[in-house]
Design brief:
The chain has 13 helices and no strands. It is 63% helix and 0% strand.
């Protein structure tokens, strides 16, 4: 394990520092601590499920415009439950990314010594990450259960088919799902190692862990892409889709701020020293800041123009010709 030469503004659980004497954080201790926000996520999932179910029953859900055969809410309740888990997974992913950016960027002063102190913020970041993985898994598992339920074959063959469709890239072969499902699977399969490597950081080295953990942002981008591409509640232009884009503005702004004012002094954009290595690092850091600024502009443009990639809603008297699959 190589020591990290960069000076620390504050000791953190990922890199405790000499002053820290608190008990070591393990997957087991964090799993126990995750119960509280896990319960909150389940309550939220239940509320979203109720909302989606009511919207199917009263005919206002755009899921019905895309897939009119789902009008029998009782027959497809598992599908709506899977959608609800998808939304709580995305919201928890949003929350954990927000907390992560607060921790690695300029920590707000109000948080020091307050209820949301650094260590609390950090623990919440870890527990919401664990719960995000569990919620994504629940979303996909309930979707698989829905496939089994509507498959008329022998149960073991139906189960095998459903697991392949939900969990094996390329196993789902119809409509938009051919792209959207593997994108979601990639998010799940990346989230597991990138989230859990924290618990073996002493073996791989805190620095390696930190570099790998940064790629967790890719998980979030894939999750959002999957939702915008495949979610039937945000399938068409309209308020839901706009709100989803609007939610990305604080994350994009915090990401930019995190790069402009990183908590670690060693990550600041200072004049590069001599040699190709420092210049390359400097170039990459500058490119990162430009990309982050571009993301803020992109979200603002989407919100200002309303061009958010949503499909045009078909006229009332026809059913959708869009291929959801
Ligand atoms: C194995 C991985 C995954 C599978 C098999 C899967 C499956 C699906 C399916 C079939 C839909 C369409 C539901 C609809 O008609 O609206 C969907 C939508 C959705 N998924 Fe996933 N997904 C996966 C990963 C993810 C991930 C990683 C996230 C976010 C963290 C996510 C969040 C969502 C959301 C928010 C929706 C929109 C639901 C709606 O419109 O009500 N999914 N997913």
């Amino acid at each position: 394990m190589r020591p990290d030469p960069s000076p620390e503004p504050q000791p953190t659980a990922d890199d405790p520092g000499p002053r820290r004497t608190a008990a070591r954080v393990t997957l087991r201790s964090d799993s126990r601590a995750a119960a509280a926000d896990g319960l909150a996520a389940l309550v939220l999932t239940a509320l979203i499920f109720a909302l989606l179910y009511v919207r199917i029953r009263n005919g206002s859900s755009s899921t019905l415009t895309v897939m009119p055969f789902m009008a029998d809410a009782g027959a497809f309740w598992l599908y709506f439950l899977s959608q609800a888990f998808g939304w709580s997974a995305l919201l928890w992913a949003w929350l954990t990314v927000l907390l992560g950016l607060l921790l690695s960027g300029p920590r707000p002063r109000a948080h020091r010594g307050a209820w949301l102190s650094g260590p609390r913020l950090e623990r919440l970041h870890r527990t919401t990450s664990l719960n995000t993985i569990a919620l994504i898994a629940a979303h996909a598992l309930v979707f698989a259960a829905e496939l089994v339920r509507h498959d008329t074959g022998a149960w073991h063959a139906s189960l095998a088919r459903a697991l392949v469709e939900a969990f094996v890239p390329g196993g789902y072969t119809s409509g938009t799902g051919r792209v959207a499902i593997p994108v979601g699977q990639a998010a799940l399969y990346l989230a597991i190692p990138l989230g859990l490597l924290f618990y073996v950081r002493h073996r791989i080295g805190p620095r390696t862990w930190r570099v790998l953990h940064r790629f967790v942002l890719v998980v979030y981008v894939l999750s959002l892409w999957h939702t915008l591409l495949y979610g039937t509640n945000v399938w068409y232009d309209g308020a839901f889709r706009t709100v989803l884009w609007a939610l990305q503005l604080p994350l994009a702004a915090l990401f930019l701020l995190r790069l402009l004012r990183p908590a670690r002094r060693s990550q600041r954009l200072t004049r590069p020293g001599p040699g190709a290595g420092p210049r390359l690092r400097w170039g990459l850091r500058l490119a990162g800041r430009l990309v982050a600024a571009g993301l803020v502009v992109l979200v603002l443009v989407v919100l200002a123009t309303g061009r958010d990639g949503g499909r045009e809603k078909p006229p009332e008297d026809t059913s959708s010709t869009h291929n959801h699959g």
